[in-house]
Amino acid sequence: MPEKVAIIGAGLAGSLLAIYLAKRGIEVDVYESRGDMRLEEVAAGRSINLALSDRGIAALREVGMDEYMLREAMPMYGRRVHPPTGETKFLPYSGRKGEYINSISRGGLNVALINEAARQPGVQFHFHKKCVDFDCGSGTIKFADGEVITPSTVIATDGAGSAVRNSMLHGGVERFDLSQVWLEHGYKELHIPPADGGGFLLDKNALHIWPRHQFMMIALPNWDGSFTCTLFLAHKPVPPPSAGGQSADGATRAFPDDAPCFSSLDDPAAVRAFFEREFPDAVPLMPTLIEDFTANPTGNLGTVKCFPWNAGGKALLLGDSAHAVVPFYGQGMNCAFEDVRVLASLIDRSGSPTSAGGRIDWESVFERYGELRKANTDAIADMAEENFYEMRDATADPVFQRKRQLETMLEQAYPDYFSKYSMVTFREDLPYATAKRLGNAQDEFLMNFCRNIDDVSTVNLAEVQKKILEVIK
Question: What is the DSSP letter of 327?
Answer without folding.
Answer: G
